[in-house]
Input
Amino acid sequence: MEIFFAVLVFLGLIGVSNVLNRFVPVIPVPLFQIALGALVSIAPTHIHLPLIPELFFVLFVAPLLFNDGKRMPRGELWNLRAPILLMALGLVFVTVLAAGYYIHFRIPSIPLAAAFALAAILSPTDAVAVSALAGRIRLPKRILRLLEGEALMNDASGLVAFKFAVAAAVTGVFSLTQASLSFVLIAAGGLLCGAILSVLIIRLRVFIRDLGMEDVTFHMLVQILTPFFIYLVSEELGVSGILAVVAAGIVHAVELDRVETPHYKLKITSDSTWSVILFLLNGLVFVILGHQLPDVASVIFQDPSFSNVEVIGYIMEISLLLIVLRFLWVYLFWRRDDGLGENHQASQRTRLKASLLTALSGVRGAVTLAGAFSIPFALSDGTAFPQRDLIVFIAAGVILVTLLTASVMLPLLTWKPEAANSKEQEDKREQAARLVLLQKAISVTKEEMTEENRIAALGLISYYNREIHRLRSQVSKGDWDKLREAEREIRLIGVAAERAEIERLARSGEISEEAASKCLQFVDEVEYMLTHRAKLRFTLLKILIRRLFLKLFSPDKLRQIHFRLGDYKNIKIRTSRAAIDVIKANLNEHNREVSNAVIARYKGIIYRMSAGDPGLADYKRHPDLNEHKKDLRIKAMQAERDEVQLMFERGEISRSLANKLRQFINVVEASLLDEDTD
Output
């Protein structure tokens, strides 16, 4: 019960950290999580979460590395293979040697083998921690890709080196020849084992699907268990489980693209599920770091053999050494034909800045913490592992220092003064992003098209193509903000015309007071959403809750509402025609394009509401057309949201643009509400 309560509190802290980050975006989420974890530790709550090192690696490292391998942009990273290997292998080797000897020299109480272990666990970088700063940092794309590839590969190389160093410290025996041979065998065995097991699991999934088992929940269970299974089997066989899950992730992505038929529902579920899992795992790592920090710090600060200033000085020195080593390594290899720069004769200034950005982006995170916690408590002879608490504290301190340094220095180095054409450039980026979203929507609609929803799917594809044409021909000429504002004004004119028409029909007795009241209520909701965009989500939530309440507790009332839909559809047709007449009356050269788009919307509503419309080839034969269209649009919007998140994570769009695109998708949801009277 105590462990369950601790985990529950930690999960709550992850949510709190993200809320705090929304109010104070200057501070990255991991720092909030570390601080909250520390507060819980020092608070009189008596929350304690014991950690088993082996469990920590299985629970955190295996799924994180598997997902990193699966999501690698393979084409781009293949082009950067030379610099990635130089960073992930060469720099790790140099870091272990240089930092290991330096740590032993500065802290003689840490044996050389233990110093090498500390240096090895400090060598892996964490791209997830850097991505937490992405809202304020605009790293060049090639540097971002380099950091992603390096973080994936040096996790494996650093942890393998760490295991050898710890083994040498525990047993007191080390042979360079034997270690080198063992490293090759363990590494090659891990890669081979991970690749083979991944292929077998994928073929098993395909075989099960061929038998007709399309259950998404079952396939998701297999996906979730895959990294844990591969890691445990590989470790049991005596090879590197770390490299095995990396290889499995890469092979998983490649092999699925080749042999498995696309299943969009499974893809949506997989992406969403893994997003939640990774969000929780990464958050838990930093919360646990903060939770453990006060206990480790209290042990070190109370140790009479070290002064507090001296220990903090060690952390600062080691952090500075790691940054300097990274800077020198990148700077020295910059002029080689390694893909670090598109122009290999770049100026010294460009070379210096790129090297500095790469050096400061080497933030330590989850893997460093996992390795530090996995250090055994005792040697083979039963004595305590030398300075284990100090090693863990230094590792935690380096994580904090590198995070703080990156959060302060990287925004300063990547900041650019506002240029005269910055607004135009931002508009072009937004236009390009929206084109990507529309193309994604078309792709998803085609994948989901069946004989039953074919008419709705073709209509949607035609609509998306018209939007692409309009976007390419119109957006470049004007300002998106002005375009949205103009469209909002025209829609408000149409809403006012609808209200006037409803009131006229009620006064003339052509519709009942009850029908007029219901229609006016709906018009008020649409007008409210158009004039209160900031409260759009709350309005949609209120409407959805109201409908859910009716379905659960008042089904009879809901059936009565559906029974009267014919009347409401007739009213909607008449109010839409009235809105078209008023918009046409207000049409001029300045609002012609926007007005025509809104008029086309109203014509679409009339088209859908008119039973027996010849354009539908007898509408009564397709009573589920609206439901099919609504279902397809919801799936397309979900795919667009996923694409926005992917573009943001890849550094292709800024946080502000991502939020703007999400707001645009929310407005489309409001349009769905406007078009559906049920």
